[in-house]
Amino acid sequence: MRRLAVFASLLAFLIGSPTALGENPMVIMETSKGTIKIELFEDKAPITVKNFLQYVDDGHYDGTVFHRVIADFMIQGGGYDENYRQKPTREPIKNEASNGLSNKRGTIAMARTSNPDSATAQFFINTVDNERLDRSETSAGYCVFGRVVEGMDVVDAIRKVKTSRTRISEGQPDEPVVIKSVRRAKAN
Engineering a disulfide at 101: which of 27, 34, 131, 144 sits with its beta carbon 3.0 to 4.6 angstroms away? Predict the structure, then answer.
């Protein structure tokens, strides 16, 4: 009887837990080109999602830009303000690219340096399938931690902006594409 009570309590807890139901956190990214809704894969990349959401909650991404746009590759942002001044970040996180997720079109992944465990705040959204960015025997890979669920038309509009090579990036938009805000989506 006691086991049944423990099981019932556990079941009630799990049913009330969003992640237990398979519901992942969502964020709404308002940009100067439109709105992008992103599902975050907390179960597959817990360290990365926690890090990203901390930046979201801190308002870090508000007023940043997509500073690197390469049409048939990805759009990258989260590191520079509208005047292309680099924003301060917290300590880097562990690379979770071994999570089994692939850099497919519409996924969001962490940007990093050549050091696999160097990701901080910058992220990119894949505009095409980029499996070459996945973890392999010869590469540490880039950690996918979510996917665009609404707004791929906005991503495509961003990928088509005119760009130039600058000191910041080989694909810096000629007119800034601003990330106005990123907020957690309200639960239904």
Answer: 144
CB 172 within 8 A of CB 68: yes
Q: Which of 2, 165, 141 is nearest to 69 (CA)?
A: 165
Q: Where are the domains of the chain?
A: 23-184
3-state secondary structure 18-74: CCCCCCCCEEEEEECCEEEEEEECCCCCHHHHHHHHHHHHHCCCCCEEEEEEECCCE
Name residue 148's beta-bridge partners: 38
HSE-up of residue 118 (Cα within 13 Å, Cβ side): 8
Q: 23-184: which CATH topology? A: Cyclophilin (2.40.100)
Asked if residues 154 and 31 have their Cβ atoms less than 8 Å apart, the reply is yes
The pLDDT score that the predictor gives to residue 15 is 42
Burial class (CB in 10 A: 0-12, 13-18, 19+), 116: middle
Q: 6 — alpha (psi -120 to 50), left (phi > 0) or beta?
A: alpha
Instruction: Count Cα neighbours of 46 within 13 Å in the Cβ-side half-sphere.
Output: 2
Full-prediction pTM beyond 0.85?
yes
Q: Which two tokens stand for residue 137?
A: 């025997």
